[in-house]
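Side project, low priority. Logging it here so it doesn't get lost.
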Amino acid sequence: MQILSSLLLMAATAQAHYRFSKLIVDGVAETKEWTSIRTTKNYQDDHGVTDVSSTDIRCFQMKPGTGFATVAAGGNLGFIADQTVSHPGPVQFYMARVPDGHDLNTWEAAGNVWFKAASIGAEQPPAGATNRALTWPTYHQRSVNFTVPTAVPSGDYLVRVESIALHQAQQAGGAQFYLACAQVKVTGGGTGTPGPLVAFPGVYRSGEAGLLFANYPVPTSYTPPGPPVWTSS
């Protein structure tokens, strides 16, 4: 009976987690996992990353990539989870341009090379609402998406998605990151200079405000961690 209970607990825990393994380009989804997304270390059990000082916070990759997707600047990119995004919290998207002469499949994106392309945070309740709790647009969704900035220069990019689960983030180290990096070629780009550029690991600190979320009193505001979203203006 004890063994059966342990197995049921493990199964329930795995079902509560998720991984991002397929990409959507302008509404067209990949049919196979890990086509243009680098295989992540949670490909078998869907566990998240909790140590923001680990290199796993960058792409959580198990091995180099083998393929890529192509999207025009101004197009739409989405990431599909194997299960619904089952924890409340923000979803953010970062991009890093592969330097000329480097291989998209093996480039590690270390150092200050990432900029925030989009962020989906909490929504405030409408005025006069009885329930003042924040809502999360990505909660219970199977896919999350953003628009590639029109001014981003053409080239090869790593595109990083992170879903920050805050259900256990009452203390430092409790936030869980479910993340992945896609290999993408951007065409028809502009002449913008994305920034500010940040590093993974490095940009986040354990216990910072955006990685803490108290259950009581009920939070009425939330600011995601990291730099501001880059806009061409």
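Brief comment: The two ends are 62 Å apart (CA to CA).
Revisit when time allows.
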